[in-house]
Amino acid sequence: MSEVLVVIDHADGDVKKPTYELLTIARRLGEPSAVFFGAADKADAVAEKVKKYGAEKVYVIDDAELKGYLVAPKAEAMQQLAQQASPAAILFPSTFEGKEVAARLAIKIGSGLITDAVDVQEGPVTTQSVFAGNFAVTAKVTQGTPIITVKPNSAAPEEAEGAAALETFVPTISDLAKAAQIIASQPRQATGRPELTEAAIVVSGGRGTGGNFEPIEKFADSLGAAVGASRAAVDSGWMPHAFQVGQTGKTVSPQLYVANGISGAIQHRAGMQTSKTIVAVNKDNEAPIFELVDFGVVGDLHTVLPTATEEITKRKG
Q: Count of CB atoms within 10 A of residue 188's CB?
């Protein structure tokens, strides 16, 4: 059975949920092998985590000399690894970095690339949501090694014991790849909530909040959800751009999406309509968002959400 390379998404060795989803998908296509870019002393701990989701091998690429640069060194490292391993496919998380490395890699090895897949089946055949979410298309790479970036929440992680045999891989990075150097970086402050693009539940607010996101945040916290915002809310200065869901913001695909005080313009719908279940709260019963939802509540979010939060808190005990 051919290897399928899965690039691990992690923060300083803390493996993120999309990695387990990718490993689950990889088992449909072949034998999963994880690729870890990070500190060598964290490799054992990472291997123990991905082992539970079927990783038969873990390629360890020490990033000590790679992390001071933009993505070109990682693309070169993946090129050399792909040439050695001859994988059946290569899967990346659909992060900004993941998509850029995948694109550079596709050019380097002359392979086809599919980005933002919401499903991957044997073949591999992918499903994507395109044209602002108005169409679902299936696609297949027809040249070279299939390189696919997959959106979070595209598969339920399924445990399956793997060997997770560690193998150190030392790439040779060219001076050209090191031309763009990072001279300063600052980690984003933690909110205590899930990452927006990875969350299983997202609660968003729009113009109808009037700038008061307290009901949104309290309701989200009662569900253990991430907080999002519409473009109108961001443009009004009520929330930072990092919270924006939509065509010019982030694309999310959670199990549950709750839209509050959001009209449902196509720009916003493009960023969330692949969500598995959609609920809307809006006092305008003719708001376009109601055309999309599974459940709708016609009412003022400032009344509905505190009541719902109280009930959820009560039921949680």
A: 7
Average pLDDT taken over every residue of the chain: 94
Sign (positive/negative) of CA torsion 297, 302, 304, 309?
A: positive
Number of Cβ atoms within 10 Å of the Cβ of 201: 17
Burial 152-181 (b: 16+ CB within 10 A, else e): bbbbebeeeebebeeeeeebebeeebbeee
Spatial separation of the C-alpha atoms in residues 144 and 79, rounded to whole Å:
13
DSSP state at residue 308: H
* Residue reference for tokens 């290569």: 90
Please give the model's pTM, rounded to 2 decimal places.
Answer: 0.83
Mean pLDDT of 243-249: 92
The number of C-alpha atoms within 13 Å of 174 and in the hemisphere containing its C-beta is: 7
Strand partners, 297: 281
Q: How far apart are CA 98 and CA 115, in angstroms?
A: 10
Cα angle 27-28-30, degrees, rounded to a multiple of 5: 60
Tokens 């970086």, residue located: 185
Q: What is d(CA 60, CA 163) in angstroms, rounded to the nearest whole number? A: 15
Cβ atoms of 76 and 126 closer than 8 Å: no
Separation CA 34–CA 47 (nearest Å):
9
